[in-house]
Design goal:
The structure holds 2 protein chains of 2 kinds.
Chain A: E1 5-16, E2 19-30, E3 34-38, H1 45-52, E4 60-65, E5 68-69, H2 77-83, E6 84-87, H3 99-109, H4 115-128, H5 144-156, E7 162-166, H6 174-189, E8 193-197, H7 201-207, E9 210-215, E10 218-223, H8 225-230, H9 235-246
Parallel strand pairs in A: 3-8, 3-9, 6-7, 7-8
Antiparallel strand pairs in A: 1-2, 1-4, 4-5, 9-10
Helix pairs in contact in A: 3-4, 3-5, 5-6
Chain B: H1 5-26, H2 31-38, H3 41-81, H4 88-103, H5 106-119, H6 130-156, H7 159-167, H8 172-202, H9 214-225, H10 229-260
Helix pairs in contact in B: 3-4, 3-6, 3-9, 3-10, 4-6, 5-6, 6-8, 7-8, 8-10, 9-10
Classes of the chains: A alpha/beta, B mainly alpha.
Chain lengths: 250, 264
């Protein structure tokens, strides 16, 4: 059964100066698919996500979203960014705005929603993720887990067709990880197309339709989680997973 | 109620400090002349009406120049931060402007403008009042300082804030306006207050180009009576405006912090 790709990446290269961080990535993500990117720090997971969102300009290669190439000339960058939500490791909430304003800023200024419309939508999303009572709070007064959930809600408020999650639990205290992972599980259950860079191997095994192992800027191996985690083909993948197991994280 | 040990120590040290200062001052050989010449209550009272009239000019000048500085300096800071090669000439203009006007002594700028502009013989530029030239001088000089303060503030906002805003689809100018500037301005309020106090005091410099403000009025009083107490009045008036201004801003900043930041 051939599904149309929500996202297709072809021979993507990205260099910072003379350092090549991504060395020709090919990846297709189907509609409603959840793909987890695993790999050591510096393997290129975050850079890949930032390139898909056009936060980082690509050096060469093509990115195609729902059939439209977004890496070409004359592309409306802001138009594309609003369709691809990204959530960062460090939340990056706007500290001078209440939760409600954090969530409604882009819908109002970019989508042109009225304040009332934007706030109604935001209230609904906040309610759904257990943040209804935090709408008037400022980010610094929330726990890390709450902040990250707000960041997810902020991205969702733009009604993106694809969500990119960049190690969203890495900055959290261990006891706050679960609440954020539950939110992501819920999104996956609803059929949100997601590309998730993560160090939470148990979570990846649980939620991903497909796991991709990045090593030194190359997509070395990919497959269903059962296969990657129990029976990896590549020696490098095996070594990486062994280190995770040794660290007691799998 | 029992007071803490710290309270008694600070009280005692304050009393000792004040006594030492008072003894030093009161035993100075010229204390009588100083008292008569600079702190004569009678002369201060006599000079007050004219000095106060002059000071109202200073106040007006401060108010107008501060609003203009806030706007112009922001413009300069934004120009200087514009991205892309096309904006290169604008960035250069902003850099040259700040370098030149931060480097020139205010009094020189006042003379160039207050005495230079009228002698150019141009229609609008040469026919303004000394007051207007004074405002222009202060705006030019202080916008250069304040532009740098703004720029420091803008640069202190972490790159990740821009990334987050742009990833949501906000444009460069929307990001600047809604995300970067509000945070930047909050952070630079203390140095901004510093520059504004400088500006408030420098309104006295424009007496050089013929504005009858507080300092000039006090000088006039001294010329007639050979008594400098009018200057003391002017000094007190300046302090009376700058200190409450500082405390008010401190209070507003604290209130804002309490609202947005976690307790403790």
């Amino acid at each position: 059964m051939e599904q149309p790709a929500a996202l297709r990446i072809e021979d993507l290269h990205k260099s910072y100066g003379n350092t090549e961080v991504l060395k020709g990535i090919d990846l297709a993500v189907a509609e409603h698919e959840v793909v987890c990117l695993i790999g050591a720090s510096g393997s290129g997971k975050s850079t890949l996500l930032r390139c898909i969102n056009l936060t980082e300009p690509v050096t060469s290669g093509r990115i195609i979203v729902h059939g439209d190439e977004i890496t070409g000339e004359g592309v409306k960058v802001n138009q594309i960014r609003r369709e691809i939500g990204i959530v960062f490791q460090a939340f990056n909430l706007f500290p001078h705005m209440s939760v409600m304003r954090n969530v409604t800023l882009a819908p109002r200024k970019v989508l042109g929603q009225s304040r009332r419309e934007a706030e109604a939508n935001a209230a609904e999303l906040l309610e759904r993720f257990g943040l209804a009572d935090k709408a008037a709070e400022y980010p610094d007064r929330l726990s890390g887990g709450q902040q990250q959930r707000v960041a997810i809600v902020r991205a969702l408020a733009m009604r993106p067709r694809i969500m990119l999650l960049d190690e969203v639990t890495s900055a959290l205290d261990p006891e706050l990880v679960a609440e954020v992972l539950n939110v992501i599980r819920e999104l996956a259950a609803e059929g949100m197309t997601m590309v998730i860079a993560t160090h939470e191997m148990g979570f990846a095994r649980d939620i991903a339709h497909r796991v991709c192992f990045l090593d030194n800027g190359v997509l070395l191996e990919q497959g269903p989680p059962a296969e990657i985690f129990s029976n990896p083909r590549e020696e490098r993948t095996r070594q990486f997973l062994q280190r995770i197991v040794d660290a007691g994280r799998l | 109620m029992l007071r803490s040990r710290g309270f008694w120590i600070s009280t005692a040290s304050t009393v000792v400090f004040l006594v030492v200062i008072a003894v030093l001052l009161l035993t100075a050989p010229g204390i009588h002349n100083l008292h008569e010449g600079l702190f004569s209550v009678q002369d201060m009272r006599a000079a007050l009406p004219s000095v106060w009239d002059g000071f109202k000019i200073n106040l007006k000048m401060m108010a107008i120049a501060e609003v203009l500085v806030l706007i112009c300096a922001l413009g300069v800071a934004i120009l200087r931060g514009l991205p892309g090669p096309a904006a290169f000439p604008l960035r250069v203009v902003a850099i040259v402007y700040t370098d030149v006007f931060r480097g020139l002594p205010t009094i020189l700028v006042a003379i160039f403008i207050g005495l230079g502009f009228p002698s150019l013989g141009l229609s609008v530029i040469s026919t303004q009042s000394p007051f207007t030239y004074g405002v222009v001088t202060l705006t030019l000089v202080y916008s250069a300082y304040v532009a740098e303060v703004y720029r420091a503030g803008i640069e202190s906002v972490h790159q990740s804030q821009t990334a987050a805003a742009r990833s949501l689809g906000l444009s460069y100018s929307q990001t600047l306006r809604f995300v970067i500037l509000p945070q930047a301005v909050r952070r630079v309020i203390p140095p901004l207050v510093n520059d504004f106090i400088g500006l408030q005091k420098d309104t006295a410099l424009v007496f050089f180009i013929g504005v009858i403000e507080a300092l000039q009025a006090a000088q006039d009083y001294a010329n007639v009576t050979y008594n400098l107490s009018g200057l003391t009045v002017a000094g007190l008036l300046f302090i009376a405006i700058t200190i409450p201004f500082t405390r008010l801003v401190d209070y507003l900043v604290k209130r804002d912090r309490r609202r947005t930041q976690a307790a403790g």
